[in-house]
Design goal:
The complex is a heterodimer of chains A (286) and B (158). Chain A is of the alpha+beta class and 286 residues long. Chain A folds into three domains: 45 residues, Uridine Diphospho-n-acetylenolpyruvylglucosamine Reductase, domain 2, CATH 3.30.43.10; 116 residues, 2-Layer Sandwich (Uridine Diphospho-n-acetylenolpyruvylglucosamine Reductase, domain 3); 104 residues, Enolase-like, domain 1 (2-Layer Sandwich), CATH 3.30.390. Helices cover 31% and strands 26% of the residues of chain A. In chain A, a hairpin with a 6-residue loop joins strand 13 and strand 14. The termini of chain A are far apart. Chain B has five helices and five strands. A five-stranded mixed beta sheet of chain B has the order 2-1-5-3-4, with helices on both faces. In chain B, helix 2 crosses helix 5. Chain B is elongated and about 55 Å long. The chains are: A alpha+beta (286), B alpha+beta (158). Chains A and B meet through helix 2 and helix 6 of A and strand 4, helix 3 and helix 4 of B.
Chain lengths: 286, 158
């Protein structure tokens, strides 16, 4: 229950951090809420830890050309009470209430959640739902990656070993768009068995466009494009019928907390709840 | 070894630690502050909860080296046996501890949520405390103690 020895480095700049990653077995230490338990269990034993907690430029949230940029070092608790996010993307605060517990939300970072890529984690799902763009910086410069390309498998992403995730860009949505998030877990703050987020735009009482995404139902966050297409042109009271079979053909994992059958059962229940809530919040021409 | 200078409960302290030493072990074994308890050592039980620069953190998920320059409050900073903090008084009044192992973590969490959460219902209190485990399962009394503290804070008659 104690980590193996490692070399501890505390870079003062992002460039120093990237230089410090030029090593066979280096890991970035941000919030440490997933990495440190894994080190304590010796599931991972990196030879070098690069502590980026001092890089305060990465801990900011700003508005830039129609998007909000959330720095990788922003903590869940900071995102939950940020006024810019509250104004443009209130679904973020709604989602943060489900991320672990108070002390972990105070410490855990958005970047850490994204690069850890747990299939049931909230941030990968949010970034998929909201069409975010992940910004990576490496020795050869910066690149931007879409979530559908970034998340490859459970705990596996497109991030190279010498790259740092510096932040994520989330487009500011139409103010009339309704958004919602919910999940089912054993206790408040536990890992989600299934998590679900949705966006809805209404036009004259009918669904003009919809987004539906799930966490916990596959290896990576899943966007349900067939359901989204079927919702267009319908009224919100048709949601329950349209989502009823949405888990057919999905192959969720089974674990001690939930069977495959139970996860498939949760999917339409959550989809209905979240889509109806999003439709209720849509401020369109109803 | 790494030299660490930090402020603990308002007092400047120094110590040396290997890079792999957890903050929880540093507080207990190097600084001698054994009020912070070590339960699960993987961030689940909450017994090692401290305040780090104003907000709660699991000290078993921090390395001692990360405490350089930090402001730490441990349970020893809340009160003393002769002069208990109002949270400790409420726990005593409501018998909100049995074996007492989880209590330091609960006290530190309660100190924060009384500042940050509305806690209007007992369900909200339970949710805010969900990151702290009591193996004696004495939650009912803990919730009563926190309810009392919230009523006191909000000027509501019990």
């Amino acid at each position: 229950m104690k980590p193996a020895p490692f070399e501890y480095l505390r870079p003062r700049t992002l460039h120093e951090a990237i230089a410090a990653l030029a090593h066979d077995d280096a890991k970035i230490l941000a919030g440490g809420q997933s990495l440190v338990p894994m080190m304590n269990f010796r599931l991972v034993s990196p030879e070098r830890l690069v502590d980026i907690n001092g890089l305060s430029d990465l801990a900011t949230i700003s508005e830039t050309g129609g998007s909000l940029r959330i720095g990788a070092l922003v903590r869940h608790a900071q995102a939950a009470r940020d006024p810019l996010l509250a104004r443009h993307l209130p679904v973020v605060a709604e989602t943060m209430a489900h991320v672990a517990h108070v002390a972990i939300r105070n410490r855990g970072t958005i970047g850490g959640s994204l690069v850890h890529a747990d299939p049931s984690a909230e941030w990968p799902l949010l970034v998929r739902l909201l069409d975010g763009v992940l910004e990576l910086l490496g020795p050869d410069g910066q690149r931007a990656v879409a979530p559908e390309d970034f998340f490859i498998a459970p705990l596996v992403t497109d991030l190279a070993e010498d790259e740092v995730l510096t932040g994520v860009l989330l487009p500011v949505p139409d103010p009339d768009m309704g958004m919602a998030f919910d999940e089912v877990s054993l206790r408040a703050g536990d890992f989600a068995m299934v998590a679900c987020g949705a966006n809805v735009m209404l036009d004259d009482g009918r669904i003009a466009s919809a987004r539906l995404a799930f966490g916990g139902l596959g290896d990576v966050p899943l966007r349900m494009e067939a359901v989204e297409a079927a919702l267009v042109g319908q009224t919100p009271d048709a949601i329950a019928g349209i989502v009823a079979d949405c888990a057919e053909g999905l192959d969720p994992n089974e674990d001690m907390h939930a069977s495959v059958a139970y996860r498939r059962r949760l999917a339409p229940v959550l989809a209905r709840r979240v889509l109806e809530r999003a439709a209720g919040r849509a401020g369109g021409r109803t | 070894m790494i030299d660490i200078t930090l402020t603990v409960n308002g007092e400047e302290m120094t110590g040396r630690a290997e890079s792999r030493m957890l903050a929880s072990d540093f507080l207990r074994d190097v600084l001698g502050l054994t009020g912070t308890h070590v339960g699960c050592e993987h961030g689940v039980c909450g017994a090692c909860t401290i305040r780090l620069n104003g907000t709660t953190a699991r000290s078993c998920l921090l390395f001692a080296a990360q405490l350089e320059g930090a402001e730490i409050v441990t349970v020893e900073g809340l009160g003393s046996p002769r002069k208990m903090h109002s949270i400790q008084e409420a726990f005593r009044r409501h018998h909100a501890l049995q074996c007492g192992f989880c209590t330091p973590g609960f006290l530190m969490t309660v100190a924060e949520i009384l500042e940050t959460e509305t806690l209007e219902t007992d369900a909200e209190i339970r949710e805010a405390l969900s990151g702290n485990l009591c193996r004696c399962t004495g939650y009912e009394h803990i919730v009563r103690a926190v309810r009392d503290l919230v009523n006191e804070r909000d000027g509501v008659a019990a």
